[in-house]
Amino acid sequence: MKMRRLTAAALFGLPLALAAAAADASDFRSLAEPAILYDAPSKQGKPLFIIQRYTPIETVVTIDRWVKVREPAGSLLWLERRQLSEKRTVIVTAARADIRQRPDAAAPLAFEAAKDVVLELSDKPADGWVKVKHRDGTGGFIRINQVWGL
Length: 150
Prior knowledge:
alpha+beta; 5-stranded antiparallel sheet; SH3 type barrels
């Protein structure tokens, strides 16, 4: 009897655990074009500011043609879904970040990037590093704690 209770508890707890894990999953995208961010999902909403092309954003909710997003500064705002791109980017959050030729702090420097520089994501993060590419074509590895958008 005790075994059944544990099994039932495990079965009922599993969907809750999966739902919680799904809620923690982030969907990051970038912008295909400069976009106006609104306070509501409508052009009748108050336009708050314009965000630049390729800026990474986190999608939170989609309602028809509108998407609620978290922008790099942390604000939750709305934009038109058509403005999203499949291209993945990250934005440098450190005052100055070293991008290395290999995912190793002792590796030669590929280039440096200042705060708010947008880099294209080249691969999935691994072991605390992520492979990125600058718009000039130079690539390398940056520590994941120095970027936002993953």
